[in-house]
Amino acid sequence: MQGFVRKVWLFCLTLLLCSTLHMPNGAQAAGFSQAQLKLMSTFVSNFTELGFMNFDTKKEGTDDVLHLGSDPSNPDLIRFGIMHNYVNNYKSRIKPCPTKGCKHGSLVIDGKYVVESVKKYFDINLKNASVEQSDPPYHFDGKLYHFEGADGEAVYYAEVKQATQEGGVIRMSGDIYNAEDKNDRPSTFVATAKPYKWNGKNTWAILSLQTTQR
Hints:
Layout lengths: L1 H20 L12 H15 L6 E2 L9 E2 L7 H14 L1 H4 L1 E2 L10 E4 H12 L16 E2 L3 E4 L8 E11 L2 E10 L8 E12 L2 E13 L1
Parallel strand pairs: 1-2
Antiparallel strand pairs: 1-10, 3-4, 4-6, 5-6, 7-8, 8-9, 9-10
């Protein structure tokens, strides 16, 4: 009888050890694997690399927090859609201005790509429009956005360290770090997003992002 009890105890101990070894940093205990946390880091970095550090798609904005979502021609959403493609899809979507003189900028992007990017990352149906009060300005001619590129500023990425889900909202938190020096981590962040399907694939649509200086 004692031998049987000892075998059962050893079997339970083995199961416990196996389950512990497969839960790095407690990520899977919360329902997310390390691979999913890396995907979340890439997702949030799509915003931080463009300087979108504090925004909310539902609440009214303040001097420090952008409000995105109620206006289908929101200038900041348009700026996101253009600059996201400038940074990530330059060769395939950014073209030289076809107009002689190019008074509105030397580069163009089709407005459909701007709408697509905003829908992909925000699940918001953008309406294309010119954004003149911007640096640089973005002129929409009915099909193309005309603008000048802007490079040279420091780029910051996000590293998601923890993620939890309550109902239909996922809360991600972690560090903001310098793309050129991963040890340079000036801020922490909390992002919220909703599960979302894009082109048949499971992803997220951002709801808010808040960063806090250390």
